[in-house]
Design a protein that fits this description.
- This is Aspartate aminotransferase family protein.
- Keywords: Aminotransferase, Pyridoxal phosphate, Transferase.
- One of its GO terms (biological process) is biotin biosynthetic process.
- InterPro entries: Aminotrans_3, Aminotrans_3_PPA_site, PyrdxlP-dep_Trfase, PyrdxlP-dep_Trfase_major, PyrdxlP-dep_Trfase_small.
- By secondary structure, this protein is an alpha/beta fold.
- The chain has two domains: 153 residues, Aspartate Aminotransferase, domain 1 (Alpha-Beta Complex), CATH 3.90.1150; 273 residues, Type I PLP-dependent aspartate aminotransferase-like (Major domain) (Aspartate Aminotransferase, domain 2).
- 40% of the residues lie in helices and 15% in strands.
- The chain contains 16 helices and 14 strands.
- The strands form three sheets. The chain has a seven-stranded mixed β-sheet, with helices on both faces. Strands 11-12-14-13 form a four-stranded antiparallel β-sheet, covered by helices on one side. A three-stranded antiparallel β-sheet has the order 1-2-3.
- Helix 11 links the parallel strand 8 and strand 9.
- The chain starts with a helix and ends with a helix.
- Bound molecules: pyridoxal-5'-phosphate.
- The site of pyridoxal-5'-phosphate (PLP) has 15 residues, from helix 6.
Length: 442
């Protein structure tokens, strides 16, 4: 009641919330969370794809407490810095997927992507190509919900009635082979077709007006869309041809989620800018970062000299407590072999998920590393989805929740993204409970 009368929940049917109210989570332990009745849930989504180290990593709590007791805040504008920010930047540059020069810290994934848009514009201003402002992304991509990052996002319900996307944000076909591939088309031919579509769009708009292409290595919120064979290779050939920058949105895929440190490594992407957040601190503090290539940095440097200042920044950018937690999270990923262990867990997840392909409600099982989804269909043959697509998935999600499993309905798909610290037995249990929820939905 207190929640309903006071608290607005994002990404929620607000009227329905007034009827249903919230489940109030009280505490966490490893891969489990507990509600106010003491009921236990397996956190099959790592919160919102972020709590990679589970819910009770004491080293992260301790390092935050130490930093809070030493220097709880300092700003990083104009010639001020802190030790945790410096150390985290050094560590990020060491593990970056391609050679990167500098790191810029913000607080959320949306902020990082907003900032990346501005850096693309700033960079091309430095080069005297002030028209190179248009940004291309994919339908069903998710890049955040601020005005500019929501414009990058390719999900209609995040645009409708907000007058979005802004002008100059263009969307191309989602690389979902199961839904978008033509009859008889191979994955490679599908990738070629999508690269041609991108090429034609850039040519039609005028390459001198297109600044960047933003892409998640694996689309998360759009339904865990794993790119088809050769996709990024072909896309990057087009981008290079037209001098269009590539921004890899690694907000979900950064820090082991796909089995390597970065999704860019898994899919041979060579980005000019990487944005990351979520698992950067394993979600124990809000923090995001942009990894910036030398050529983009040189443009920023030149432009800031011309103007007298790099006119951008947030009060909480490079927050020292968040950065201290980030340093510790990266240490744990490395020293405890957390990321090295993902391929083994991924193999277990794949083996557990594979039989679901035969389930009468499922048209496709897809995933990589520890991000997976099933495609719900009314008819396996015709691939017809349930309508309205969200509702059926939400029913399955609720049945899973009743059985002590957190999963996430995403349009026609339902996602599972367990914490990287979960055990093989917990993976089996996640898939078992998920299967029970599906069976109960028949
Ligand atoms: N980019 C991706 C790929 C995301 O999945 C998200 C959030 O889920 C964002 C950006 C936005 O991050 P935030 O919610 O921290 O603003």
């Amino acid at each position: 009641m207190r929640d309903i009368s006071t608290h607005i929940h994002p990404q929620t049917n607000l009227a329905l919330h007034e009827t249903l109210g919230p489940t109030i989570m009280m505490r966490g332990e490893g891969a489990y969370v507990y509600d106010d009745d003491g009921k236990q849930y397996l956190e099959g989504m790592s919160g919102l794809w972020c709590a990679a180290l589970g819910m009770s990593e004491k080293r992260l709590a301790d390092v935050a407490t130490r930093q809070l007791n030493t220097l709880p805040y300092y700003q990083n504008f104009a010639h001020r810095s802190t030790e945790p920010a410096i150390e985290l930047a050094e560590r990020l540059l060491k593990v970056a997927p391609v050679a990167m020069s500098k790191v810029l810290f913000q607080s959320s994934g949306s902020e990082a992507n907003d900032t990346a848009i501005k850096l693309v514009w700033y960079y091309f201003h430095a080069k005297g190509q002030t028209q190179k402002r248009k940004i291309i992304t994919r339908h069903r991509g998710y890049h955040g919900t601020s005005i500019a990052s929501a414009s990058l996002t390719g999900l209609p319900h995040l645009h409708r009635d907000f007058n979005l996307p802004l002008d100059g944000f263009l969307h191309v076909t989602c690389p979902h082979f199961y839904r978008e591939g033509l009859p008889g088309e191979t994955e490679e031919a599908f990738s070629t077709r999508l690269a041609e579509e991108l090429d034609q769009l850039i040519v039609a708009q005028g390459p001198e007006t297109v600044g960047a292409f933003f892409a998640e290595p694996v689309m998360g919120t759009g339904g865990v869309i794993v790119p088809p064979a050769d996709y990024f290779e072909k896309i990057q050939t087009v981008l290079r041809k037209h001098d269009v920058l590539l921004v890899a949105d690694e907000v979900i895929t950064g820090f082991g989620r796909t089995g390597n440190w970065w999704g860019s490594q898994t899919y041979a992407m060579k980005p000019d800018i990487v944005t990351c957040a979520k698992a950067l601190t394993a979600a124990y503090m809000p923090l995001s970062a942009l990894l910036i290539s030398e050529r983009v940095y040189q443009g920023m440097r030149a432009q800031s000299e011309k103007i007298g200042v790099f006119g951008h920044g947030y009060t909480y950018g490079a927050h020292p407590v968040a950065c201290a937690v980030g340093v510790e999270a990266l240490r744990i990923y490395e020293e405890d072999g957390i990321i090295d262990n993902v391929p083994a867990l991924a193999a277990r997840m794949q083996a557990a998920m594979a039989p679901l392909a035969d389930h009468p409600l499922i048209g496709e099982v897809r995933g990589v590393g520890l991000m997976w989804a099933v495609e719900l269909v009314r008819d396996k043959q015709s691939k017809e989805a349930f309508a309205p697509d969200m509702q059926f998935g939400l029913g399955v999600q609720n049945r899973a929740f009743e059985r002590g499993l957190v999963c996430r309905s995403l349009g026609t798909g339902i996602a599972l993204a367990p914490p990287l610290i979960c055990t093989e037995e917990q993976i089996d249990e996640i898939v078992a409970r998920f299967t029970q929820a599906l069976n109960a939905s028949l």
